Backbone:
């Protein structure tokens, strides 16, 4: 168990690391950020920084010696990084969670083995395998790279007018999965946490709306039945327990059908604090960032009580130029990430409205 004055190491220097470091400070905890050279807004609010590559073994060993525990803000940490660090300091969530969630085929196979529903999928590693998979999955379907896909990157929709070759070229011939397209009513997610002691809590299900494959708005309560809400939270707990997970994570779902006919399908797991959980910063008694700090510190988890009806909106690219007008809105919660350059598609901040 960590105590005030101890240091948490965070891999990655983006906005998620920044908000974790800000959440740690009121408890007297310090944060040491490890990230490659670049625009790292977490550096501005942390006690220490290491600028080095994720496969720099000597830098990683020195980093490990300076902290009490290591966590991360993104799941695409090289496996060698986690292996080097875990030989010297606890890494939470454990490297197994990274290994499973970094590969879409491994992840979906793990979820299906737990008895949870996922869209039908087949692994493909060549154009010939893709053509064979299309005979089984059919069209429309979605071709997704097994690794390094996010915000719609590494994906190609295969409709009747799209050839297998064009889709295969679009993802750069990378190992992939072909997944059945789900005609869903809405996309929802559950942000949850599990402690070192095995305590598991889940925030209310949130409804997510995307624009250009990037999360635009998150709304609570989600327009789903109480039964679907309960099933989503139970699925998150089942995943956390099977992984022996410690920390905050998110499970994204497709909801097909409506009312008594609603069907819940797991889309993916994010083993970290998550964009769809940003509403908790001001919209819940304990933010997801504080919750993660509590979990990896070995502390009791906080209350997940929602404080009202919620609308969270991402500020993407030039949206951040609205900051002065947004500050004038009474009761608005605004979080700007301190990034130097606003580029199209880049997350620059978010705002949350809480209607009590």
Residues:
């Amino acid at each position: 168990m960590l105590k005030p004055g101890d240091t948490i190491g965070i891999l990655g220097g983006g906005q998620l690391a920044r908000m974790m470091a800000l959440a740690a400070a009121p408890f007297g905890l310090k944060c040491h950020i490890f990230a490659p050279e670049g625009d790292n807004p977490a550096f501005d609010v942390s006690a220490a920084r290491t600028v080095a590559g994720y496969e720099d073994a000597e830098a990683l060993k020195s980093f490990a010696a300076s902290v009490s525990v290591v966590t991360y803000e993104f799941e695409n940490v090289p496996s060698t990084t986690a292996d080097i660090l875990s030989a010297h300091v606890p890494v939470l969530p454990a490297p197994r969670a990274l290994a499973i969630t970094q590969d879409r085929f491994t992840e979906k196979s793990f979820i299906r083995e737990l008895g949870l529903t996922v869209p039908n999928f087949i692994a493909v590693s060549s154009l010939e395998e893709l053509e064979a998979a299309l005979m089984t999955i059919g069209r429309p379907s979605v071709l997704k790279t097994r690794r390094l896909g996010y915000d719609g990157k590494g994906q190609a929709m295969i409709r009747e007018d799209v050839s297998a070759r064009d889709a295969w070229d679009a993802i750069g011939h990378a190992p992939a999965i072909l997944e059945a397209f789900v005609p869903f009513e809405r996309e929802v997610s559950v942000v949850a946490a599990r402690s070192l002691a095995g305590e598991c809590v889940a925030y209310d299900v949130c409804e997510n709306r995307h624009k250009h494959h990037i999360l635009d708005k998150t709304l609570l309560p989600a327009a789903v039945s109480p039964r679907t809400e309960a099933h989503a939270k139970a699925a998150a707990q089942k995943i956390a327990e099977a992984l022996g997970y410690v920390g905050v994570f998110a499970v994204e779902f497709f909801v097909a059908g409506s009312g008594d006919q609603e069907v819940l399908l797991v889309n993916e797991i994010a083993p970290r604090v998550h964009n769809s959980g940003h509403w908790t910063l001001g919209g819940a008694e304990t933010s997801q960032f504080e919750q993660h700090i509590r979990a990896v510190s070995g502390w009791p988890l906080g209350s997940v009580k929602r404080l009202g009806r919620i609308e969270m909106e991402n500020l993407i690219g030039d949206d951040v130029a609205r900051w002065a007008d947004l500050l004038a809105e009474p009761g608005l919660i605004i979080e700007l990430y301190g990034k130097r350059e606003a580029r199209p598609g880049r997350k620059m901040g978010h705002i949350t409205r809480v209607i009590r």
